[in-house]
Amino acid sequence: MTRIALIRHGSTAWNKEGRMQGSTDIPLDDEGILQAQKLGLRLSDEQWDLVYSSHLSRARQTGEIIAAQLGITDFFQDERLREVSGGKTEGTSEEERILKWGPDWRQLELGMETEAAVCDRGLAFIDDLLEAHARKHILIVSHGSFIRHLLRKLAPTLTITEHLKNTSVTRFTIKDNLWDCELYNCTKHLV
């Protein structure tokens, strides 16, 4: 049995400002670093073998903090785990997007990455991961929109009712190609 935990990175200044981050490389803020430390402490009671993260600094920093706290030296970055590209919307707030493109801005061609493209790279990563690390316990640190798209494919019956919180954990066991969600969007380490 393989176990995978999908973790959203810690908070950033742009999260607090409500700015679209996309593939723009924004670092963790002080709260994000603290969130990652708290998550590392929480996970220290569990058995994890390796960490993969997006190459973007907010996810990479989160993964590095967790790996260091768990004593995990098998730490890998993979660009396929990057956040969904927001195209021209990156760096803007919802108010700015509405002012610039109107309330239906999501319907416009603004260079945003398609759901199909996100799922293609995400599922290719998962296939490669499961082939290379069968029966391992793997932490994957990535981004909210990317994880949400991936969850729709990996666990289509999972009800996704809220945005993934910073440093939230969504954990699966995989046996015989069946994905069983044990935990969803959990941030008990932040309480």
TrEMBL record:
Residues at the active site: H9, E83
Keywords: Hydrolase
InterPro entries attached to this UniProt entry: His_Pase_superF_clade-1, His_PPase_superfam, Phosphoglycerate_Mutase
Gene Ontology process terms (BP): negative regulation of glycolytic process; regulation of pentose-phosphate shunt
MF-aspect GO terms: fructose-2,6-bisphosphate 2-phosphatase activity
Superkingdom of source: Bacteria
Binding-site residues, substrate: R8, H9, G10, S11, T12, A13, W14, N15, R58
Protein name as it appears in the record: Histidine phosphatase family protein
